[in-house]
Amino acid sequence: MSEIWNLFIINPMTNALLWLTGTLGGNFILALIIFTIITRVIMLPLNLRQQRSMMKTQEMQPQIKAIQTKYKDNPQKMQEEFAKIGYNPADTLTGCLPMVATMPILFGLFQVLRLVLGTTPQALFELTQRVYPWIDLTKLLPIDSTFLWLNLGQPDPLYILPVLVFATMFLQTKMTTPGKKKDDGKKHKGKDESDPSAAMSQSMQYTMPIMFGFFSLSFASGLSIYFILSNLVGIGQGWYTRRVMAKEKEIQAQSKKLQKMGMSASSDEAAAMDGKEATAVSETQVAAKDADSAASDSNGSAQQSSRKKKKQSKRKKKSKR
Amino acid sequence: MTADDQFIYVAYGPAILSYDVANQQEVWRYSPAETNPPFFAPPSVQDGRIVIGDYGVSGGFLSPGSTYTLYGLEIVDNRTVSEMWTDGGELSTDRYVGESTQVDDVAYVPTSDFAVLAVDANTGQLNWRFEAAGAIWSQPIYYEGTLYVTSLGKSVYALNAETGDVLWQTPLVGAMSAAPVLNPDAQLLYAGNYDNKLHALDMATGDEKWVAEAANWIWNAPALDDGRLYYADNDGFVYAVDALDGSPIWEKPAQVAGPIQASPVYADGRLYVASTGDPKEGTGLLVALDAATGLQQWQQTTDSPLFTTPVIVDNVIVVALGQIVNDLLIAYDLETGNQQWSYNPTPREEGN
User: Fold this and answer.
1) Which residue in the set A119, A121, A157 is minimally distant from B65, CB to CB?
2) Maximum Cα interatomic distance, chain A, rounded to a whole number of Å
3) B135: closest CA of chain A, how far (Å)
4) Are B174 and A141 in contact (CB < 8 Å)?
5) Min CA distance, A185 vs chain B (Å)?
6) Is some CB atom of chain B closer than 8 A to the CB atom of A156?
7) Which residue has the higher pLDDT, A178 or A78?
């Protein structure tokens, strides 16, 4: 097991960091920054999917709860109803994937920093056994482990990094977990008690940052810097996903509006509106083009429904004639 | 591990112990009672006095950073040890890895925080501090008022032992964890380097006189005897060269299984080489070679890798194992390689 861990996690990470350090003229801190960004970018699709899934599930909660209550004695029917609203309980499990996938990187980096900074003879000896032949370790050593007031292989003596780890992780969690709707509290008093997942995500907003902030007191500063950078990327990702989902909501609201108008307005008006809305929809699609297929699905259904309305109004006209 | 007369002194993880080879028994064990720090550096022993630094004690969960302490100990009648002084963690902000050198009443202490410290060996008072360009894991070597120092910062230094002033500095390509070896007759200093070379420098000026090649990093100091230099590398090769010009003596280098971190030891026409053995097996190896030809005479496999230079005491060669599987120390007959005794320090309540 340890050989597999070394072969697929520790050795590639160690060599990637060393290679980056060499490429960047021996600047280890810059190498660590780029390494963090690369790992976050690799994880981005998975993270985005998780965040979208969480937010959608959160929004569907009232419907999910209603179905659960209604069909509590008929699991098969419950699943069918879930499918109708586009909810798949298995998504809750796949939502954990990004966190599970980042764990090896996190644990690995803990080991890799100790190795790469080679602050002890044992670590340096171990490093020589792991370095790929194309890395010139003789040239790279000794790796400069100092950055500002920090020794990257040791904890921050001024406690600044643990505070930053806490703050950035708190913000990241805030950005990437679904917000608590204000009216929910009024409509469903004691909702958190009856909705464990929401309660859990709310408590995670505080417990995770506090936990990691405390850990950072004894972590090597290099690892704390990885956390901070990683959290900053996460904050950016959260902001982006929220923005895309807001656009989607806008689209859905517009399509609902269209449906209502199609019921009441004349066919000519509907056709005229249709053109405008279709343009608006396509513009929004461009803005949110890489967001997800769900968005395009909803756009498609909006366009389909307006086409149906057009046909219906034409048929009405013909029948009047 | 160091030796003095019939005693060997081992810094092994939680303590320093003295072992009487002649009587095959542990004499004393020292570990600071409150902190129980790990020790890595070989103890420097002179005139019943030990100077050693520890590997650091963490400040605890809420207190980042570690404290690294330097100790002065006194051996009383070879039976017990007592603490003379400590620096209270004031002198270094990083680990003590290399062995100190004591000359008269001054101890020259290498530190991982890029410094050589000259301290009063009786009081711990700091005389001077020299800052190098990298960590110093090797023992500083003293000769006639000059201190020769190699560093991971890729330079060899000659310092005025009285003041710490730099007399000369020679930058090299690779880092060095090997202590320099002096050949005053030839006015040469030898330094094994991570650039796969053994460098011979002029002791007076630091100018490079010649280099001898190796296949991989040279971790530790060469052995010098009778105009010959023996050194080993990280690929397990052992070399013999002429100490004056670096020309090879053996037809081809001898090969030992596994990377070699310890210095070769020469005695009575034999060269003893401790290796880390096969990393996958997790075993170590002690090999005796004919110093004239490089041909193997005997070998012994140990339970764990050998990182430490063996010592020869009382007609046996003693190795300290990297991890205690069954034993900490094993002694082998110099001629036959047969195991003579072994010693496993039984766990006990640490403290003075």
Assistant:
1) A157
2) 95
3) 9
4) yes
5) 38
6) yes
7) A78
Total Cβ atoms within 10 A of residue A263: 10
**Chain centroid, CA A55 distance in Å:** 10
Q: What does the DSSP 8-state code read for residue B206?
A: -
Q: pLDDT digits over A202-218, tens only?
A: 777 788 888 888 888 88
Out of A121, A137, A156, the one facing B64 most closely (by C-beta) is A156
Secondary element (H or E) of residue A281: helix A267-287
Contact (CB<8Å) A129/B65: no
Which amino acid, residue A47? N
- pLDDT tens-digit readout, B138-176: 999 999 999 999 999 999 999 999 999 999 999 999 999
Backbone angles phi, psi at B90, to 5 degrees: -85, -30
Closest to B61 (Cβ–Cβ): which among A125, A138, A217? A217
Q: Where are chain A's structural domains?
A: 1-144, 251-320
Q: Do B175 and A125 touch (CB under 8 A)?
A: no
| Partner-chain contact A217 B62, CB within 8 Å | yes
Strand ranges in B121-259 using DSSP code E only, listed in sequence order: 126-131, 141-143, 146-150, 155-160, 166-171, 181-183, 188-192, 197-202, 208-213, 223-225, 228-232, 237-242, 254-255
Compare B34 and A305 and report the one with higher pLDDT: B34
Report the helix count and the strand count for chain B, using DSSP H and E.
0, 34
Digit-coded pLDDT (tens) for A118-168: 678 988 998 998 999 999 999 998 888 888 888 888 888 888 999 999 999
pLDDT of residue A98: 65
B234 part of contact set with chain A, CB < 8 Å:
yes
